[in-house]
């Protein structure tokens, strides 16, 4: 049973989040704070009382954009404590995911918050709290990645993405390149981009047979989507649609060979 503090300076958003959290049977208590200062005060008291004390907090569901200190500021401050509560960021903005996971966040939930997505975040927190309470477990397990799956009816392989609180499916064949963003990967298509919770290395291994090649530690590219290979003063780049991507030296020769074979075949 989890003890939760939810922090959001927008009162309607905070009340909705608390309503959803309190409806989850895995939550023992869920209290709210409307600014970072109040949240830090409560967390400080909880840490002084200890994990079994009154007002103890297992996890903080934390908005990022707030007046005064941001959610990221709060997370940085908490990182200085020996045993801080876990953190789940709840935000309307995708762009802070890399910073969030650098700060050891358990999860990153996008607004508007869906009940099913929040339940998954609670599951991850609960599993981690249980693991941390086991005396032989000293490391935090990695959060479970998103799965790539075949479309219903045996169609083209697809990957689920969240957009505005709705889960949609993007065909792998529509992806032009993938960009690493911490524990996440950003999938780029002609229509836009989507952030998914899966490491670039996992996609590289899975999609090698589909013509995706690593050109840099931060980029995986669909070979058939490369429009141009350019060599300039010893630097190699490729153009994929409107994007120009750097090719690392270790991958440059292999990429040239693959492009030649692709053109001939």
TrEMBL record:
Note one Pfam family from the annotation: LytTR
Q: Provide the Response regulatory domain boundaries.
A: 3-126
Origin, by domain of life?
A: Bacteria
What SMART domains does the database record attribute to this sequence?
LytTR, REC
Q: Boundaries of each HTH LytTR-type domain copy?
A: 159-261
User: GO: which molecular function terms?
Assistant: DNA binding
Q: What is this protein called?
A: LytTR family DNA-binding domain-containing protein
Which species is this UniProt entry from?
A: Streptomyces xantholiticus
What are the leading ranks of the lineage? Answer: Bacteria, Bacillati, Actinomycetota, Actinomycetes, Kitasatosporales
